[in-house]
Amino acid sequence: MTPRLQHASGADIDAVASLAARTFPLACPPELDAPAIEAFIAENLTPEALRAHLDTPGHELLVASGTGGEAVGYVLLVAGTEMDPDCAAQIVHHPTIGISKFYVDPAHHGAGLAAVMLDDVSRRSRAGGARSVWLATNLANTRARRFYGKHGFLERGQRTFDVGGVLNTDVVYELPL
Length: 177
Ligand SMILES: CC(C)(COP(=O)(O)OP(=O)(O)OC[C@H]1O[C@@H](n2cnc3c(N)ncnc32)[C@H](O)[C@@H]1OP(=O)(O)O)[C@@H](O)C(=O)NCCC(=O)NCCS
Known about the structure:
By secondary structure, this protein is α+β, with helices and mostly antiparallel strands. The chain has one domain (about 5-175): Gcn5-related N-acetyltransferase (GNAT) (Aminopeptidase), CATH 3.40.630.30. It has helices at about 15-25, 35-45, 45-55, 115-125, 140-150, and strands at about 5, 60-65, 70-80, 95-105, 130-140, 155-165, 165-175. Helix 1 packs across helix 3 (about 45-55).
């Protein structure tokens, strides 16, 4: 397995979109209905939607590949608080970088890949001059919340997040670098 994340290219987009569509439901609360989840995927996680990040200044789409070259994890970084300006007041350390997406194929959960990916994100962000990274994850996403807490993220507050027209409560986290 590639130990580090690499910048996604156009050739990676279909595989990343497939991984994104498979893993997004895992981050959703159990009561969120399928149509809302499908609407979010159709709007944000198609190959076209993901490809747009390749050309957007301040956006970095990163992919971790398995031994056969398949996408096993992906990350979308968005500089500053652009991914949700309403959260800006909760972030303590600036400059910061938002982790808009952080997803690992379920076959690789609990295997250390997520920690390798997070270390890489921290290293890249620090090298780029950031003093923190931040993200938001659903209140009910206990696995992710445990992972982030274990790796030093601090809870800063909450935000409301629209998934296919349904409003959800997320916890906002910041990791000082
Ligand atoms: C969040 C994610 C990246 C973490 O990677 P991971 O490989 O699962 O992480 P780890 O196994 O190192 O850590 C998860 C922790 O949660 C624990 N855990 C597992 N299932 C759990 C559950 N149902 N409830 C609570 N904790 C759980 C694990 O035991 C582990 O804690 P421990 O190390 O103290 O034992 C990965 O689970 C994932 O991609 N999830 C789906 C997508 C997602 O939610 N992404 C985040 C969106 S912001």
